[in-house]
Specification:
Layout: H1 2-17, E1 29-34, E2 39-41, H2 51-57, E3 65-69, E4 75-80, E5 83-88, E6 91-98, H3 105-109, E7 118-125, E8 131-136, E9 140-151, E10 154-161, E11 170-178, E12 183-193, E13 197-202, E14 205-212, E15 217-224, E16 230-240, E17 243-252, E18 257-265, E19 270-277, E20 283-288, H4 290-297, H5 303-311, E21 314-320, E22 324-329, E23 334-338, E24 343-344, E25 355-357, E26 365-368, E27 379-383, E28 386-389, E29 400-406, E30 412-420, E31 423-434
Parallel strand pairs: 3-31
Antiparallel strand pairs: 1-16, 2-16, 3-4, 5-6, 6-7, 7-8, 9-10, 10-11, 11-12, 13-14, 14-15, 15-16, 16-17, 17-18, 18-19, 19-20, 21-22, 22-23, 23-24, 25-26, 26-27, 27-28, 29-30, 30-31
Length: 435
Amino acid sequence: MKRYFSLLICALLCIGITGCSKESSSTETQVSNKSSVTESTAETSENIETASDEQSDIKETNNNMIDVVDKDGKHIGQIPFNSGMTLTNKGIFYTTAIPVETISDTIAAGMNEGEKDKFLYHLYDTKTKEIYSFGSIPDQDYEAAYCRTELNGKLYTLVTTGNAMDKEPDPLLLAEFDLTEHTINQYNISDNGFPYTAMAEVNGKLLILNHDQTDVLNDKLCLFDPESKQTKQVMQFELNGNTGDTIRTMNSDGKNIYILRLHFEGYNNVAMFLDTYDLDFKKISEKDISAMLKESAGKNLVPEDVLNEMKQMVSRFIMMDGKYIYYENFSTTRFLGNIEDGKLFSETEGAGDMFLASSGSGNFFFYCILGGGRNENSIYEWENGTLEKTVFKADDDRYYITAASRSPDGKTFVRVDYTNPDDRNDTLPTKIYYF
């Protein structure tokens, strides 16, 4: 997994500064905001490696299991230690990594130098208590798991194949997991993609960001129709010579589309804008939220690092009631605030940079990270501009939440862990609360 950790860190450092062309590391972006319409039919790949293929090729060596319990701590089942958990209407969707050295001797003998680990996709069905395997995506390099979106009984995520560390173009693929049939389809979004991307549901379709890797960086937004399997480009932004615009991410509340746009007027002169569009991609407004970002990032950072924080890629962005924003980037900055008056929620109000948002396609909630031995394992629901603490509490006060997700049908899971920072042997077993 070291390679993929290095890939992520390198990608974030690179694109966090400029948007990152493979050919040039000095370009930045210029907005074109046009609604050029390019249509194409995305083709289903025929080389998906199925679960049955994996059974004959791969043996898993990690037998560590996580207990799944209900809200009262009663045992429900077990799943293997994993990464990238997302709660769906069918159960817990997750990945496991199979290192090259665990592949059978026969298969390994035929491998090329530099062969990559395989990533297997699974579903723990919370009704049948069974684990179903989907298989893997051939030549997978990186999955943007933070983009996972459930729609009409299928889970969608974005994946690059090839090698993001070289100078060759890499395909950006949309992977479609059928949560009932336990199959994978994949659709080509771009032949020139990049690991950093974004996705949001808009009126029953998927709005996808492709961070085009050319000398002049082009951020293209396209709509994927799950019914017709067609893609249509709806918007393009351009960054050229440290001047212009690049997209960080987007979100939709079913009424409007919200886009975080980073504007450059030179390498050290940047501003973050929140752009609001209607569902037909007609621009309604734009608002400079740079001051909010700087205030949050600047609490413990020098001005140079604050500037770098503004350029970072965004891992989570939620708009609430049209005026409240939750922002979280891949570095250190996260905040909750009111865009109308520019004020951040303070820690005394139960928010600030100590809260994280849940994943999944259901109604989001927040959970608290205090640190310093002050563990807080309750969750907080968003209610009309306030955070309401819920009754959930783990069965040991030492636990803290390390992951949380909610499905469209309202089910929730939280993963809890504990290790004593002063005594690494003093630990509690990982648990997943499902309710």
